[in-house]
Amino acid sequence: MPVAEPHSPGAASGFPLPAIPAHARVVVVGAGQAGLSVAHHLAHRGLAPGQDLVVLDRSPAAGGAWQFRWESLRLGTAHRVNDLPGMRELGLSFETADQGRAARDVVGEYYAEYERHFGLAVFRPVAVTSVREAARASDARAAPLRVDYRRGAGDGATRGTVIADLLVNATGTWGAPIRPYITGIETFRGRQLSTPEYRSAAEFGGRRVVVVGGGTSAVGFVLELEGIAASVTWVTRRPVSFAGEEPGEASASMEGRLAAVAQQNDAAREGRVLPSIISGTGLPATARNLDAARRGVLVARPLFTGIEPGGVRFADGSFEPADAIIWATGFRSELGHLDPLGLREPGGGVAATQGRAERDPRVFLAGYGPQASTIGANRAGRLVALQVLEVLAALS
């Protein structure tokens, strides 16, 4: 079926933007995969989108973080994108999508059609700035929450508030890339950028590039830069492996995935900073990756120990000249707007069990920790939605 282009209702058409309700039973923050999954299940079970259920998304259009990925990224070379619940009734599936198109375009179009079909009434661009107590009460844990937001951008932005019984945070990680401090990082004369800032290999034509990171984004950058950059040096903090590279490794790969998810679960329950999933799963053993490894392209050096104005210095004293450093070094969960609620544990994270914050039962975290994978976000959507409905019933 034809899919309409994603758009931001009202802004482009010249019509007034719909008003965001002042009160709601549930506010969902973020309309990526986890947020849409939760919203779908809540709407399917009786909450009215745009009234009882308010979904706020800071992005300009549908598509979650995918709309900001680089143009060359294709569905066939990215992490698998799982279908949203109910998507197949639209005649859409990422399994049958055009693998030759930019992933950001396909995901954006499919998500936009999904929102329209199910009438999820996503308000965008709306950035939630803080979540706090709405008012003092004898039992603060049962009191409503005040969700402050900024709508629009630049001089035309407006501010507002929604009072909500419960909040589902589904903000993901894309807006919080991690850039580790390495001695001398501030002295580098070349360009430094993180994964969300990468657009195209063409920007680095004839340049000497160092790519830092052991995940799929780093691998994608290395492969795309081959033959375009003057040189590409790949460095990782820990040794990397390609899952399933040798006979018998497929089962080991599955064990690694299960172990990695278990580590995420443990960290989420204990409120520690979440570990990397890729460290336990290994990199995908695609034909392209394995061929590049055999050719010596995907062979990583250990992380350098210092950065100098013209390049990076390794522990063995060797020096690699560089014009650019791409930091594909992962992300942290975007939870700063929840800080007024005091949810963080001494370990730096937010303790959550099955998506519900331990320190505040009014707050749910979707797409957090072990739920962060595309399939995990879908499963979490239903789990979180059912818990939300149970709490709402108790409040009523």
UniProtKB/TrEMBL annotation:
InterPro entries per the UniProt record, alphabetical: Auxin_biosynth/cation_transpt, FAD/NAD-bd_sf, FAD/NAD-binding_dom
SUPFAM superfamilies registered for this protein in UniProt: FAD/NAD(P)-binding domain
Top-level lineage group: Bacteria
PANTHER family linked: FLAVIN-BINDING MONOOXYGENASE-LIKE PROTEIN (AFU_ORTHOLOGUE AFUA_4G09220), FLAVIN-CONTAINING MONOOXYGENASE
Classification lineage: Bacteria, Bacillati, Actinomycetota, Actinomycetes, Micrococcales
Organism of provenance: Subtercola boreus
Gene3D superfamilies for this protein: FAD/NAD(P)-binding domain
Protein name (Swiss-Prot/TrEMBL): Pyridine nucleotide-disulfide oxidoreductase
Domain FAD/NAD(P)-binding, chain residue ranges per copy: 25-256
Keywords per UniProt: Oxidoreductase
Gene Ontology terms, MF aspect: flavin adenine dinucleotide binding; monooxygenase activity
